[in-house]
Amino acid sequence: MDPFGRHIDYLRVSVTDRCNERCLYCMPKGYKGWAGHSDHLTADEIVRIIDQSTTLGFRKFRLTGGEPLVRKDIVEIARRVWELPGVQTLGISTNGVLLKDLAVPLKQAGVRSVNISLDALDADIYRKLTGGRLDAALDGIGAAKAAGFEVVKLNCVLLRGVNDDQIPALVKFGAALGMPVRFIELMPLAPGGPVDERHFMSITEAMARLAEHGPLEPAHDKPHGHGPARYYKFRGAHVGFIGSITCADFCKDCNKLRLTADGKLRPCLGRHGEIDLMPALRGEGASVTDALHEAIANKPENHAFADDFQVNRPMTAIGG
Ligand code: SAM
Ligand code: SF4
Fold first, then answer.
1. Which of 19, 25, 64, 99 to mutate to test the pocket of ligand 2 (most atoms within 8 A of CB)?
2. By C-alpha distance, which of 290, 22, 48, 315 is closest to 186?
3. What is the Å distance from ligand 2's center to 45 Cα?
4. For residue 313, which ligand has an atom nearest its CA?
5. How far away, in angstroms, is 283 Cα from ligand 1 center?
6. pLDDT tens figures, 264-286
7. In the chain, where the domains are located
8. Which residue lies with its CA nearest to atom 8 of ligand 1?
9. What CATH number does the domain located at 10-318 have?
10. Is the pLDDT score of 9 beyond 70?
11. Higher confidence at residue 251 or residue 231?
């Protein structure tokens, strides 16, 4: 339990800060602050941290980045994590671009759920937003469907004037594949980039936009696990809305810690505090479990995005 009575059992592990796309909301233009490869946690270190965390009751794990699939040993990492006795669920977050060839190996390695970023179905908008190719992402989504993961969700960051006309098409696309789409409010995590508060669109407005195309009704169950999304039903499909900025109780049920690719535990995405695990990994000072205890004890009640939060490293370097 953290100081606010939340049971922390979810660790999101960034395996790299590098990426093969350049999303406007995630990576500031010209960003060059990559950690050196030697600063990235090794597969052994990642497995050791996760193993230690299970002794504290962590059960749910997600591999992320940056783009986790650019890491050459990602399948090995997934397999070794899944083989750990305390691991109950293992997910991965990806832009999908490299999933065409990796979906089956990841499924065989033990990955249960895949979250895939898909911000537009229009190739020009997709390229403008991510710098990447829509067809590659769509191939990856098709491969995830064919591989038979338990859950595949699609994530779209809402950007006024950029992709807000894509909402109904994305919902229809996800529904046809049996993949819920989740719309996410823009968080201020790419300082100095071309995307700023003028592009912000609330989930309330996104819901209203979708409701112009048919009835949108609350889904009373929690259909897709214990996550931050509120789910609605639209023409038989589930649609999620993640109100990171506008939902007053957004942090109330937060159950996670983040681990950055350079070995820092981050109790909250929207607060600067970090606890360095490197000394523990090298056998200097406190143990890994002590550091995890400290991170849980220092988990703040809520994020500070509303308090003129000045990000100290962009999303790609924290881990999504
Ligand atoms: N590369 C993978 C991907 O794109 O899914 C995993 C890492 S990415 C940082 C994880 C998630 O964070 C993605 O769904 C992405 O859209 C979201 N994200 C990144 N920057 C964000 C921002 N400024 N506000 C809201 N969500 C953001
Ligand atoms: Fe890369 Fe994912 Fe960030 Fe886009 S959101 S730049 S794909 S890490």
1. 19
2. 315
3. 24
4. 1
5. 33
6. 999 888 888 889 998 888 888 78
7. 10-318
8. 320
9. 3.20.20.70
10. yes
11. 231
